[in-house]
Design goal:
By secondary structure, the protein is mainly alpha-helical. It has helices spanning 44-48, 52-60, 77-89, 100-109, 121-131, 137-147, 153-156, 159-171, 190-193, 222-235, 240-254, 268-281, 291-303, 308-320, 327-330, 344-360, 363-372, 378-396, 404-413, 423-435, 441-448, 458-465, 472-489, 499-502, 518-525, 530-552, 557-588, 606-619, and strands spanning 3-6, 13-15, 20-23, 31-35, 38-42, 68-71, 93-96. A hairpin with a 2-residue loop joins strand 4 (31-35) and strand 5 (38-42). The termini are far apart.
Length: 622
């Protein structure tokens, strides 16, 4: 820290209690100057010889009290006045970054100009500021902090503007020219902490990072910080990425609990102003701040009840960068008083914003973006968002108070996004069914319709077939597609199924009418019994056995082909046995009626329904 010593005489100011200061000399003091609550017993000549204002005050005072005056509004108060008084006496006084602005403002108030006496205090302080303080990085920051309590004097004397220019100029300089000390988190530097693959145990001189100035500025109050960042932006030499990093660092330092998505202090007005200022300072370029940081800001904005305009702007920006988010980022707590744990509506809005942005993206811009980062092309982004929301749904599904409509609406928002696997969605659906066992058959059917059984992996299929929480309809669909996949891999066609069964499968027969009994429809939507699960487990085991059997004999081509056909037929036989078991009871009752069931994805004609018993009998053991 820079400092300047003035005067050479020993300091003879003494204290008598808290409110009396006097000069201990052989010559008795002849005036009293009241600065606030503190009385200064001093000598008239040394002070009046350097202060034009004191000359005027004593000249205009009443004759009765000509030896005592009152000054209530001097900037810096008693401490600043004492520095000026010591200078007048020629006593040793040390100026530094912490007291120089107060002394400068007090000297201005006392009118200690060169016209009063050469080499006066104002001149000496200005020389110190320009030659030392404003050339020092950390001293400029300290001085700027002290100006806040000295307004408007510090502003009118241009101390603030000089500090801003000094700080902004240094932050904008080429890093190769940075020769002063600064605060920096060394953990950020891989070569410093040994995490770099090029590190060989030998410390090497470090290049100055582009964001070297970020942490030092976190000491500033938000009003001054805003002015510094604005000045840095005006100079136009600091990149938007570094500005974004600076704002992130400031939020982490100044907002307690920011990383956890909460504010640990009740001073909401203060923190609301801080968040709104950070939002105002955010660079406008897309991608200059991380999506994670934007989502934390959104959490804070919601918690602190920031304006709708600020929240809408955040939502728009996050929607454009949603593929970068993580599930943890999206777990925003619901406002107080809400029944649910998480704020699902906000995430729903973010997804809608992403969908809107994706539909409006210029194809040329998309090609450019994809060439720069294939991970975030439009199609790739949709896959990432779909995976993200699948994970988010699995988390919020644990909430026992989450309405089915919110779960389904959010899932339907990404239903059009092409993705190769529905395992994540299946996991979310299974979690919801587990935490909400009391939902109705129609609700169970509605949520299961979200996933495409054809896009489940072999592991997910194995789990689904044994899952007692899924409707029987879904279990049969999973089993059928697993069989179809196994058969296709063996090079054979899928065995014929009764028309009423094919009606339960996506892309089934498409007749003009549907002839399925109401009771049968209810059975398909019901949860399977332990006996049904056992039978379906046996079917899946048979499929595995058939596949492994054909694979083991792959060396002999002719023999392999025969065994593949045999395995296929066997699978068809076992599948039909299960279907016959499930349908025979209903058909023996003869309760077959025509009903228009809009919930069924396929349709069955009357001839197919009539043929079902004969097919079942044909494949059933006698």
């Amino acid at each position: 820290m820079k400092f300047m010593k003035l005067g050479s005489k020993p300091d003879s100011f003494q204290t008598d209690g808290d409110n009396i200061r006097y000069v201990a000399t052989e010559l008795a003091t002849d005036i009293v100057i009241n600065i606030g609550d503190v009385k200064f017993y001093v000598h008239k000549f040394p002070l009046l010889s350097k202060s034009a204002r004191l000359q005027k005050l004593f000249a205009t005072s009443n004759d009765e009290n000509s030896d005592e005056i009152y000054i209530q509004d001097i900037p810096g108060g008693p401490a600043a006045f004492e520095i000026c008084a010591k200078f007048c006496y020629g006593m040793t006084v040390t100026l530094n970054a912490y007291n120089v602005v107060a002394a400068r403002c007090a000297a201005e108030y006392l009118e200690m100009y060169e016209t009063v006496e050469k080499g006066n205090l104002i001149y000496k302080i200005d020389v110190f500021l320009n030659s030392s303080i404003f050339r020092s990085w950390k001293d400029s920051i300290i001085v700027l902090q002290t100006t806040k309590s000295l307004l408007p004097w510090s502003e009118e004397l241009k101390v603030v503007s000089h500090c801003l220019d000094s700080i902004a100029s240094k932050a904008s300089i080429d890093t190769s020219k940075v020769e002063w000390s600064y605060t920096y988190n060394r953990k950020k530097l891989p070569l410093e902490n040994g995490n770099s693959p090029q590190w060989n145990g030998v410390r090497k001189p470090q290049m100055v990072p582009k964001d070297w100035w970020v942490e030092d500025l976190c000491e500033l109050h938000i009003d001054l910080y805003k002015r510094v960042i604005t000045t840095i932006k005006t100079k136009g030499k600091a990149s938007s990425d570094v500005i974004g990093e600076a704002l992130n660092a400031y939020a982490l330092r100044r907002l307690p609990g920011f990383t956890k998505g909460m504010i640990q202090n009740n001073d909401f007005i203060k923190y609301r102003s801080l968040v709104e200022t950070i939002l105002w300072l955010l660079p406008t370029e897309k991608g200059t701040v991380s999506c994670s940081f934007l989502l934390r800001l959104l959490r804070a904005a919601i918690l602190l009840d920031c304006g709708a305009m600020e929240r809408n702007e955040l939502t728009r920006r996050i929607g454009q960068q949603l593929p970068e988010a993580t599930v943890i980022d999206l777990l925003i707590r619901a406002p107080a008083g809400e029944a649910t744990i998480y704020d699902v509506d906000t995430v729903h809005n973010l997804v809608e914003e992403f969908v809107t942005h994706s539909s409006q993206t210029d194809p040329n811009e998309n090609e450019f973006q994809e060439s720069r980062s294939p991970k975030f092309g439009t199609d790739a982004s949709k896959v990432l968002v779909a995976k993200l929301i699948d994970g988010y749904l699995a988390e919020i599904a644990r909430d026992p108070n989450l309405p089915l409509s919110k779960f389904v609406n959010l899932a339907e928002n990404i239903a059009s996004f092409s993705r190769s696997s529905h395992d994540g969605l299946y996991r979310a659906i299974d979690m919801y069914l587990k935490e909400h066992p009391g939902i109705s058959k129609s609700e169970r059917k509605r949520i299961c319709r979200l996933m495409d059984c054809r896009k489940l992996s072999a592991e997910a299929c194995m789990h689904a077939v044994q899952n007692e929480r899924l409707p029987l309809r879904v279990v049969v669909q999973v089993l059928f597609f697993e069989q179809a996949r196994a058969t296709a891999s063996a090079g054979n066609s899928t065995a014929d199924l009764p028309g009423s069964i094919r009606a339960l499968l996506p892309g089934g027969s498409h007749g003009s009418s549907r002839s399925i009994t109401t009771n049968t429809e209810e059975d398909w939507d019901s949860v399977p019994t332990a006996e049904d699960i056992k039978a379906l487990k046996g079917e899946l085991a048979t499929l595995r056995l058939g596949i492994s059997g054909s694979d083991r004999n792959g060396n002999d081509a002719a023999k392999s082909d025969v065994e593949k056909v045999a395995a296929s037929r066997m699978k068809g036989l076992v599948m039909s046995k299960i279907f016959s078991k499930l349908w025979s009871g209903k058909e023996r009752d003869g309760d077959v009626s025509s009903s228009d069931t809009s919930e069924s994805p396929g349709s069955v004609n009357a001839e197919e329904t009539k043929s079902t018993p004969s097919r079942s009998r044909r494949h059933s053991p006698s």
